[in-house]
Specification:
single chain; 353 residues; alpha/beta; nine-stranded mixed β-sheet; five-stranded mixed β-sheet; 26 strands
Length: 353
């Protein structure tokens, strides 16, 4: 078996001998994959976000899993799609699912494409935390609009849908997005931020209306970042053609023309799109760890140095004489004796999954 080392800022791979160790299987998702789910009459017992009775009555949720194999993600997504790469010891998508659960979501539907069989390894019973998890496979990618249309039979015909990008890491308040949408029930409500590297959404804060996207209407070049999270009404399904690969953006632009696309500012908390290995590593450095950074089932030699920014997964091993600073070591990976590395990702060979 091989363990690969990915330097921060580079895409070269160095192979090292790997000692045996258990590996948690993670699932996979497509280039424009999407995860969704339906909310039943219940509430998270440990929710940090208050859920009103209206919220907890029936609010479907759909997690939109972004690219799982695109070159920008480098070799990491040759092994797993982005929504299932390890993030603080568990598949990244569980980060979003847990946030949705805390808002009352109790049923999830996941679109798959890239390495689709791996999802069964993560959710072998097709459930999570007592909630059903359904899968909708896209042999041919349907893009952000076509994927939404494909799950129409699984979604409510009356209640709104929450869409969350499954490959993002975030801590902003999803509950506030739900509350704002439910208070008005527009066709769509986007979660926007004033910071980000793609600030191409025009937004009038005073009216709460989105005025442009990507300057497509020539109204506003944009100064807001779309987070990939939004609430939508079932009427959207009727405006998307069946079985076609279409983007959701043209439909958003139609609603902007009609003065019916709303937004909220979601500047609280953190947000990061895992678009590159560099962003993936940086998220581990920037985000507070919900669990100990060194897993209780990891083995770190007393003759090794691991700084407080490293994340060492379950079943991983750091051998004698290693010196790691700001590194991520995937579950089951062994970092060989004498390795010195800074801001690197140690991950597995595709054959190990």
């Amino acid at each position: 078996m091989l363990v690969n080392e990915l330097p921060f800022g580079k895409h070269e791979i160095t192979d090292f001998p790997l000692n045996s160790g258990k590996r948690r299987h993670a699932g996979v998702s497509s280039r424009k994959e999407e995860d969704k789910g339906r909310l039943k009459k219940s509430r998270s017992p440990s929710s940090d976000v208050p859920c009103t009775s209206q919220q907890a009555s029936a609010f479907p949720v759909r997690l939109f899993s972004a690219p799982g194999w695109v070159p920008a993600c480098g070799p990491l997504t040759d092994i797993l799609p982005k929504p299932l790469i390890p993030f603080f010891h568990e598949p990244l998508i569980l980060h979003s699912m847990r946030r949705c659960y805390d808002c009352g979501i109790r049923e999830f539907i996941i679109n798959t494409h890239h390495l689709a069989a791996a999802w069964d390894k993560v959710f072998p019973e097709h459930s999570w935390n007592g909630c059903p998890v359904h899968f909708s496979h896209e042999p041919v990618l349907l893009d952000s609009g076509g994927g939404v249309k494909k799950i129409e039979p699984l979604a409510s015909a009356e209640e709104p849908l929450l869409v969350v990008n499954g490959d993002m890491a975030a801590t902003f308040d999803l509950g506030r997005l739900l509350e704002e949408h439910l208070s008005r029930r527009p066709p769509v409500t986007l979660a926007l931020r004033t910071s980000g590297d793609k600030k191409n959404v025009g937004f009038d804060f005073s009216s709460g209306l989105v005025t442009d996207m990507r300057h497509a209407l020539g109204r506003d070049p944009g100064s807001y970042q779309f987070t990939g999270a939004y609430c939508m009404e079932p009427e959207i399904f009727r405006r998307i053609p069946s079985g076609e690969a279409v983007s959701i953006i043209p439909l958003f632009l139609d609603y902007i023309r009609e003065g019916r696309l709303r937004g909220i500012l979601a500047d609280d908390g953190l947000w990061m799109d895992m678009g590159t290995p560099e962003a993936y590593l940086q998220a581990h450095l920037d985000f507070p760890s919900p669990v100990p950074r060194i897993h209780s089932r990891a083995r770190v030699s007393p003759r090794a140095f691991v700084d407080g920014h490293c994340v060492i997964g379950p079943g991983a091993a750091v051998e004698d004489g290693c010196r790691l600073q700001g590194c991520v070591v995937w579950p089951g990976v062994c970092v060989p004796s004498g390795t010195c590395a800074e801001r690197r990702i140690f991950y597995c060979s595709p054959t190990d999954y």
